Amino acid sequence: CDEVEEAKKVLHKIAREDYAIIYITEQLYQYMLDEVEEYTDLRLPAVIPIPGKDGSLGIGMTSVRKSVERAVGADILFGGED
User: Fold this and answer.
1) Which residues make Cβ contacts (< 8 Å) with residue 68, sequence separation at least 6?
2) Would you call the peptide bond into 45 cis, given omega within 30 degrees of 0 as the criterion?
């Protein structure tokens, strides 16, 4: 899809600039996992999926949970429960 390809280009462009946080709708994020993965272990930018106009897909919360678990070594937000 042209929209996804354009979003990938924009992600890489603004990631090279001085942004600390980049928000992407979950609807686009799900098609950009390889691109987002490039920034996962970097300090900046943090790429954060957020719900789009059609509502949440649960991707944002899953991403936050994984980030916290990676940082502290345990799921302190939900105790392993969904």
Assistant:
1) 75, 76, 77
2) yes
Give the pLDDT band of residue 81 (cuts 50, 70, 90). low
Q: How many whole angstroms separate alpha carbon 26 and alpha carbon 34?
A: 14
Per-residue pLDDT of 10-37, as tens digits, reads: 999 999 998 999 999 989 999 999 999 9
Please give the backbone phi and psi of residue 59, each rounded to the nearest 5 degrees, phi first: -70, -40
Query: 48, 21 in Cβ contact below 8 A?
Result: yes
6: burial class by Cβ within 10 Å (0-12, 13-18, 19+)? exposed
